[in-house]
Amino acid sequence: MVYLRNRILRSVMLFRRNSRVLAALAVGIIVIMVHYREHFPQINITYFKENEWIEEDFADLYTREERQYEREGRVDASQSKGTEKKSSKVKWAPLSTDSSVRTEPPSNKYESTVGETPQADNVSKENSNELPPCNFCIRNFREKDPNYRLDEQKAAELQCRALTCLPPPEYYIPRPKPINGFEYYTMILSPKGVCSDKESRILIVVHTKVTGAGIRSLWRRVTKPFLKAHPQFRILFMVGYTADTAAWKATENEGKQNNDIIGYSFIDSYHNLPLKTAMMLRWCTENCQNLEYLIKIDDDMFFNPKKLLQVLRKFSNQLVIVGRLNFHHEVRRDPSDSIYVPYEQYPYHFWPNFQGGGLYVVSGKAVPKLWAVAPYIPVVNLEDAWVTTLAIATGVERQLTRDFTNRRPERWVDKLKNTICATAEKQVGYLMTGRAKMDIEKIWYECRNASAV
């Protein structure tokens, strides 16, 4: 105890001896910060007001960056004028269409086809640091509701959008010329008479690997009772091409035998998933003019017949795309990531809110509209995000449905049967892990309430 008291007394005496030095040092630091305040990060408060995200200067001072943005016309002049001594409320606007704003040569290979709308390509890896911090909306969003990823309804109510991180409206304007090369791919396998049958008005197109004969056989087996009970449905499989002659020959024979495989001449690979979706839209547009619904589903996804029928009845005769909406997803820039997207392909930091690609429903009227713009909107590696850009470009409404699919893939475990079946009963789709996708058969046969037709 005595030792502790002595240490405290020594500390007090030492502080008294050096208090003048510390005070002088503090004053010096303050003087330097005031003199060079433009070089220090600005502290902002972000809040939502009148349907706009407002970022307010906490220090009540214009920084060098704000004055630069005002000179370039990206600050609301009515709010900022004459407020150098008051709180400056800055509403960040999209980049100017003036090409002089760019300081680096364009890195976007699609710019030559944009015509009179170069604004879509003004953001590149080199000059993206000139923008206001694009994570302010996401940060504010997380502060409002830490569990926003777990509740999509809350996410929708918060109406959060990262203004400076997303493409401007001009990005969604179709380019004057085709830019994706879809015209070079030809149909090499097609079922016959699918849409000539007046009863077949709803197509379920299952995306599978060209070598996935086993999973296709499983799908035919487990969905047979459903198709028998609902003749208005037809299930088809979408594949690409493989250079393996034996594998392709086997797929051709399988398609001719079952009359249910659509094939195009692109190489069947993970990064060609957008191509697979584009060719699906193309085939349906060219072959099924009277289509009521197109349901795109991956081969590792179980679908609940009752829940699916409820969704179709709810959105009948509407121009919509329905699915589980993904909010505020940041673009992955790591080349080792399976959903990596380079800056040259998509130079923005976040995706617009998009439907999950594992399972979504497209109204029949929307299918030809999506295909009509597909060759003219820059394709990206992330298939579901790209389909969303097509929907925005055509005015097709995106509908969020609660409990549409599970967020993470699951694996069948016998002791968790009751939990898995209870979840599958609530959702339209239930995603299995890629390695265990053959286990969807267990859901069809073990979860009778979920798979009842």
Automatic annotation (TrEMBL):
Known EC number: 2.4.1.-
Cellular compartments annotated: Golgi apparatus membrane
Major subcellular location class: Golgi
Protein's GO biological process: protein O-linked glycosylation
Comp. bias (Polar residues): 96-122
Topology versus the membrane: Single-pass type II membrane protein
Region (Disordered): 69-127
Transmembrane region(s): 21-37
GO molecular function, one term: hexosyltransferase activity
GO cellular component terms, semicolon-separated: Golgi membrane
Keywords: Glycosyltransferase, Golgi apparatus, Membrane, Signal-anchor, Transferase, Transmembrane, Transmembrane helix
Entry similarity comment: Belongs to the glycosyltransferase 31 family.
Name of the protein: Hexosyltransferase
Species annotation: Lingula anatina
